[in-house]
Amino acid sequence: MLLQFITQQLSKAAMLQKGAEYIRQLRAEREQLKEDMASLRQEIEGLNAAISNCQSMLPATGAPVSRQRAGKMRERFDEFVRIRTLQNWKFWIFSILFEPLLISFNSTVSTASLEDLCRTTLLWVEQHCSLVDLRPAVLNSLRYLCTATDILSDPSRLPEEATRAVTSGDSKNAPSRAPPRPPPVQ
């Protein structure tokens, strides 16, 4: 019985020893996890600071218009002008007047979000659609029309020239002696 008592004591002592070792192991793991968490928090703070720094360098109006988006807009505009001009040649004249506004709209308005779209569209209207801004744009467009077509010398040819301008395949080649397109609204 004494032997059994000693054996029970030893086995309880061994169990307590193993329990103590397990507790030490758990505490060590907990400390390691705390260190890992602190390290990750510092990394998160560093990444957030880097993100904030990058965001502060972005333009206030959102991401600039990509060349691809501007090119797509140009393709859609040219196709729309072609279709409408073939229905009514006078639309070509309207497109010449409108094109500088399209260019300025495309370079000013941000579509990053609905809020940005509304805000930058209103800003564009204020900056580019007042009479003071539209007069020079219309004058440049009319000057282009007068030098690129025979409207002054033979106005009866204008319908044919408008149709040729949109069916030539490349609007830059229409009419053949056409100067550069009118400059965008400033």
Automatic annotation (TrEMBL):
Keyword Ion transport tagged: no
Coiled-coil spans in chain: 16-57
Subcellular compartments: Nucleus
Region (Disordered): 157-186
Main location class: nucleus
GO function terms (MF aspect): DNA-binding transcription factor activity, RNA polymerase II-specific; protein dimerization activity; RNA polymerase II cis-regulatory region sequence-specific DNA binding
Biased composition annotated in UniProt, kind: Pro residues: 177-186
Protein name: Uncharacterized protein
Keyword annotations of the record: Coiled coil, DNA-binding, Nucleus, Transcription, Transcription regulation
A cellular-component GO term for this protein: nucleus
Top-level division of the source organism's lineage: Eukaryota
